[in-house]
Amino acid sequence: MKQILNWVLAATLICGASVFTSCSSDDDNNNPPTQEELKTKLMGKWMVEELEGQPCPTNLKAVITFLTPTQAYGSLSDFYSESWNNHSSADLTIKGNKVTLTAMENESIKHITDATITSISDDEMMLSSDWKVFLNDKMIIHEVYEKERYVRVTEDYEDDIIGTWEGKVTSQEDDHTDGELHRWEYKANGTYTYYSKVNGEWKGDTDYLSNYFVDGTLLCTRWKKTADSEELREWWEIESIKNGVMKWKALRLREDGTSYIATFQMTKVQ
């Protein structure tokens, strides 16, 4: 399964793509929400929680926020398609228990996701989706997903992360870490500076690219050392920001298909 939809809702739908046996029941399918119920219950911020009956890896997560019955936005960092969507907007239509999201990636590429919501509560929803991507009105991608599960996001750390933080990984392993203490300066313009200690002093990297965004609890970063170097990306879920301490967690997949939980802790630098 590949989560690519440029703009977020579609990507979120994709991420949860699976056939669930443990998270839904026949009653869900027999009593789908009405159009009027969705216009109320759907509003707010959602993030995929499980796929194929298992927790969704953090690197596949995306966030969708329903603003009104006609407008939504979402955020996604997708490594495969090189999509980088920070609060990207989409048109929304709701007919019965069917929801359609339409977004233009650029002048030539259009994404359309049709979702059928089988159940929704205050905290979670189940759905199936049909995703299409068009290049100059020619369909180039078409993927269908049966059952997916999402949870409502009630925290948003977009503003709280701004500032300089010092910390290191607190788990035994992670994809991009040396186990040393570092600093990150998150700026309001969506860029950040990464610091290492050299000869007892903090020295900031002069990377060609260093971007980040936070939507809800999802933190996505990308960086390149030079214009010609490989672009790297990292995804985290912000567990909490409280009393000057920020904690991250992430479900990572190893190459052999096994998984582990990575954790990180930082303290705000005054």
Structure description:
The protein starts with 7 loop residues before the first helix and ends with a strand. The longest helix is centred in the N-terminal third of the chain and has 8 residues, at 8-15. It folds into two domains: 8-152, Lipocalin (Beta Barrel), CATH 2.40.128; 163-268, Lipocalin, CATH 2.40.128. The protein has helices spanning 8-15, 26-30, 35-41, and strands spanning 44-51, 54-55, 63-68, 71-78, 83-95, 98-104, 109-120, 124-135, 138-152, 163-169, 182-186, 192-198, 201-204, 209-215, 218-224, 232-242, 245-253, 259-268. The strands form two sheets. Strands 13-12-11-10-18-17-16-15-14 form a nine-stranded antiparallel sheet, with no helix packed on it. Strands 1-3-4-5-6-7-8-9 form an eight-stranded antiparallel beta barrel. It is globular, with a radius of gyration of 19 Å. It has 270 residues and is mainly beta. Helix content is 7%, strand content 56%.
